[in-house]
């Protein structure tokens, strides 16, 4: 039996009076699934055609590479083409995209 079938059977077999408690437990389980999914790669990074591997940077690493504050990066994340949203409140930044973007920006 698959995990989805097991959950479906559990919901169907739970007495109606116990459903609110089950809903709370399912919400906690969902949070754990989302957190675990965000921290584990679904598949290993594949080399790009030029031989480089894809790399996603944390907000701290991206801010350091750009020499900006983390708060600046959060404020501008929607407008930056190398931003990757990987969860509800989780951002990562494509290292190669960041480097290309930074190289094409006018120096001030």
Number of strands: 3
Q: Largest beta sheet: what is the strand line-up?
A: 1-3-2
Question: Percent range for helical residues?
Answer: 40-55%
How many domains would you count in the coordinates? Answer: 2
Strand content: 5-15%
Mean pLDDT: 82
In one word, what is the shape? elongated
- Poorly predicted regions are none
State Rg: 20 Å
Secondary structural class = mainly alpha
N-to-C series of helices and strands: HHEHHEEH
Provide keyphrases for this structure.
single chain; 108 residues; mainly alpha; 2 domains; 3-stranded antiparallel beta sheet
Can you walk through the features of this model?
It contains 5 helices and 3 strands; from the N terminus they run H-H-E-H-H-E-E-H. With 108 residues, it is mainly alpha-helical. It folds into 2 domains: 3-39; 56-104. The chain has a 3-stranded antiparallel beta sheet with strand order 1-3-2. The relative contact order is 0.11.
